[in-house]
Amino acid sequence: MNTQTASFLKLHNISVEYPCPKKASLCVVNQLSLELEKGEIGCLLGVSGCGKTTILRAIAGFEPLRSGEIWLAGRKLSSATQQVAPEQREVGMMFQDYALFPHLSVERNVGFGLRRHTKAERAKRVDEMLELVGLQAERKRYPHELSGGQQQRVALARALAPSPSLLLLDEPFSNLDVDTRERLAFEVRDILKQAGLTAILVTHNQAEAFAIADRIGVMEQGQIVQWGSPRALHEQPVNAFVADFIRHEALLTQRTQALMRDQADLSLDVPE
Amino acid sequence: MHSQTQIGRFWLLAAACITLVVLAPVLTLAIHALQGSTEHWQHLLDYVLPHAMQTTLLLLLGVGVVVSLLGVGSAWLMTAYDFPSRRILGWALLLPLAVPTYIVAFAYQDILHPIGPVQGVLRELLGYSSPREFRLPDVRSLGGAIILLGLVLYPYVYLSTRAMFATQSASLLEAGRILGASQRSVFFRVALPMARPAIAVGLSLALLETLNDIGASEFLGVQTLTVSIYTTWVTRSDLSGAAQIALAMLVLVIALIVLERYGRRFQGYSQNQRSRSMQPNRLTGASAAFAMFLGWLPVLLGFIVPALYLLAESYKYLHLTGAVSEQLLASAWNTLYIALITTGVTLSLALVVAWASRSARQSQVQGWQRLLKLSTLGYAIPGTVLALGLLLPFVWIDNVLEDLISVFVDRAPQLLLMGSTSALVIAYCIRFLAIGIGSVESGLARIPPSVEQASRLLGETPGGTLRRVHLPLLRPALGAAALLIFVDTMKELPATLLLRPMNFETLATWLYAEAARGTYEEGAIAALAIVVAGLIPVILLARAQFARHS
Predict the structure, then answer these.
(1) What ipTM was predicted for this assembly?
(2) Is A101 on the interface with B (CB under 8 A)?
(3) B471 touches chain A (CB under 8 A)
(4) Does CATH number 2.50.20.10 belong to domain A3-90+164-269?
(5) Do A92 and B457 touch (CB under 8 A)?
(6) Which domains occur in chain B, in start order?
């Protein structure tokens, strides 16, 4: 074994190009490195366009690397010259729009990745997954018949079913309303911990990051500015940007919540 | 690892081959026309081309005016006014699409014949006793052709323009009214200029159809370029001459494609899906009756009259003979099976091209994308030109095949392509590939990329993803495309006439032969069968439109 595989997931000096929002040119993730231990939940936190989703897509095998290497469980997944096909990576992903197959029922969505299992094994695994996310009653339903929160849980169950080595979550809660979001963030953390999974989450929402992650990386313009535990980020921000970002976000969240409370109060005052 | 890119390359190569096959006829024509003797060219330039070109341009101009007036007029009527029967009229206006140009000419030639029903009744009413004393202007003329073609081709303009009017925001028109413009001047100053791109798209499609037409022009005695190609080739066996006329025709085709592309480029600029569409003005009394008259007139003339005529004639014939002839049944069977084969082959090829150009777009290979775009040009090549361009490569391939096979067998089969229906199927595929590619591409565009990526991360290969995710999701789009291709193949006349094997008749060529011989016996039945089949996609289209607009 190589010394580079000490950690379970290791991104070593990777550079990736991606299309910039609002600009014609290409942005770059430049010489980025990070490591994650088995069973840990990492989180990339940053504003849109900072390159965090690009990193997820590079781990999944959808973006070629310009330089650097990605290692998972002692296996080299990507380098500048070679790339393991996405379907051979044993990486699961939960997409921002959930990407459920609209023509398949809940149980067949969850069973999609279990083709190499026997029929009985597949049925058993689907049962387990549906029980884990609490959707046994909805198994025959189709995605469009489900609420946003239910769709999200189907997506999670589907991604977990083939027992991936690593789970990627791309803005998993952004399509949900504020209340559901907070409840589900804790729920998802419980499910991941219960399954003993290693996962990376990408979000622009600081509250989500703090609710779920063991390690958080604050990103700016294709760079990780600080990589550490939530506590470390709070207590010892490495620079003004991190401090600002976290405080600013926290302030904003409080303000929105306050605003929404006010609005709710106002709407109650309106005579019918 | 590398297999992934290899598979991608395989798709691209396959799609590029298909594109080359589509372009082959045009390239062949160009080469052949340049090689042809200048003697012929001089003859053509002196006698045939100027006249045929002039006739064709006049026909295009006339049909252009008629379809624009009918198409834009009916679209505005349906958008701005409400009157009894409006909802039915909304889809009834599409019905003439089910009547191919050669059938409307076939029907009216008989209906308006000097000793036919209409003129007979007119003479009776006016008190004349013989056609020599009174007759209507002859329908067998350029003017007749313009009106008849206009009557069945206006729905192209109606469709695109009405969709455009419907997506125009009502507030724009209301802003016009508030600024002091009348309903009429809002139409000319706001609605019409904004709809110009949509009109250009509909108009170019209608005019391409006009260029493609051979039956109507020939029945009505109008010497267009298409007819000249046919006679130069079939009657005078002058292939280079025909190829030279075909090249002249391609110039017109390119002009029409440019018109269409212009339209499509600007079509986006008023598509604001969220905007509220215009509230139609409710009409009553005389003005409502007048609106109904205006709206129903094109439906009556373009569909109801010819369809009733065909129905009556078919009934009369069946009543007389009690059964249809063996030959008609055989040509119906031929039509059915060749249309089915064409549909299957065309859809499969369309899937390959659409899939490859999607991969090319994802990996951002500009050159490939542009090359693959060319594969949709077949729809614009008139059937006669296409057949002519395919003839030479086919004969060449047949010779090569014969030589190859004769190495192994004593008596090698001759004319493997031209002697069988394969030549026809290839020609149809080239012409209708655009329908398939268009449907598959718009179907694929509706599948988010994340769905494909999800399948890959769940362990499925690209091929497996196509089979388990894309194909099931594409099923409605493929079904609609299959229907359109099937019906268009059934209706196709010009290429079929030139490329069919000996003694192989489809319903369309059967009808053509009957009309050419002047024996109208079973032609009506064949025509009726084509119109009825043509109605199915029109009804589906109408239902889709109806659901969107009302």
Answers:
(1) 0.80
(2) yes
(3) no
(4) no
(5) yes
(6) 1-32+325-521 (1.10.3720.10), 36-274+284-318 (1.10.3720.10)
